[in-house]
Amino acid sequence: MTAPFLKGPSDPTVQPVPASVVDQVDAADTTLSNPKRAVISLGSNLGNRLETLQGAIDALEDTPGVRIKGVSPVYETEPWGVEPGSQPSYFNAIVVLKTTLPPSSLLERAHAVEEAFHRVRDERWGARTLDVDIVAYADLVSDDPQLTLPHPRAHERAFVLAPWHDLEPEAQLPGRGTVAELLGTLTRDGVTPREDLELQLPE
Ligand SMILES: Nc1ncnc2c1ncn2[C@@H]1O[C@H](COP(=O)(O)OP(=O)(O)OP(=O)(O)O)[C@@H](O)[C@H]1O
Ligand SMILES: Nc1nc2c(c(=O)[nH]1)N=C(CO)CN2
């Protein structure tokens, strides 16, 4: 008896799969079975800053394909890039996560989390309830303006590098050097650890 559903090479319903499709499926498989490490900067200088940062961490953890692996200490920081005294101070922190999302989807999710916390985009570097930036994604280097990797200003920001260094003293910023060395080139004035505050790693 012949097996009715057995499709051999002569089966006319079996079409050859184009090589480009095979490549795409293989690439997706690699991402799924090989989560990438990403470093995210969180900042808030409007509203309940600590609650917002914790809410952002929890929202990121609730994202399919994202697992938070580490949360830095909290820093209170003077607004960078604007007239001194023109904005409230920020709370900043860093999270390290593993993700099966590609970089563009992680950025979309970062924007959705900002929106969930009523982030308003008006002036550049304006005060905000929540800022979620991708500092680094694996060892990718890209100058795409939609998603520049590493973040184009991370290496000049002590409010990014100080908490990241606390969490990962050996960390490297791809294409720029070690976080420790970069931090050594910056002033830490106005970047103050808030040891009385703590963000929780989601369970
Ligand atoms: N690594 C990155 N992380 C987040 N956004 C990025 C990145 N690279 C490029 N962008 C783009 O920058 C745009 C503006 O981002 P955003 O409004 O968060 O800027 P900002 O936080 O005010 O300033 P800065 O970019 O200096 O942190 C985003 O819409 C995004 O497409
Ligand atoms: N201290 C501090 N300054 C900033 C911050 C921030 O998170 N902390 N974010 C900015 C835009 O991303 C601009 N300036």
Automatic annotation (TrEMBL):
Regions that span the bilayer: none
UniProtKB keywords: ATP-binding, Folate biosynthesis, Kinase, Nucleotide-binding, Transferase
Highest taxon listed in the record's lineage: Bacteria
Catalytic activity entry: 6-hydroxymethyl-7,8-dihydropterin + ATP = (7,8-dihydropterin-6-yl)methyl diphosphate + AMP + H(+)
Annotated Pfam families: HPPK
InterPro entries: Hppk, Hppk_sf
An example molecular function term from Gene Ontology annotations: 2-amino-4-hydroxy-6-hydroxymethyldihydropteridine diphosphokinase activity
Enzyme class, spelled out: transferase
Domain 7,8-dihydro-6-hydroxymethylpterin-pyrophosphokinase: 124-135
Keyword Kinase among UniProt keywords: yes
Coiled coil: none
UniProt xrefs under Gene3D superfamilies: 7,8-Dihydro-6-hydroxymethylpterin-pyrophosphokinase HPPK (3.30.70.560)
Pathway where it operates: Cofactor biosynthesis; tetrahydrofolate biosynthesis; 2-amino-4-hydroxy-6-hydroxymethyl-7,8-dihydropteridine diphosphate from 7,8-dihydroneopterin triphosphate: step 4/4
Enzyme Commission number: 2.7.6.3
PANTHER family: 2-AMINO-4-HYDROXY-6-HYDROXYMETHYLDIHYDROPTERIDINE PYROPHOSPHOKINASE (PTHR43071:SF1)
Listed name of the protein: 2-amino-4-hydroxy-6-hydroxymethyldihydropteridine diphosphokinase
Species the sequence originates in: Streptomyces lanatus
Protein's gene: folK
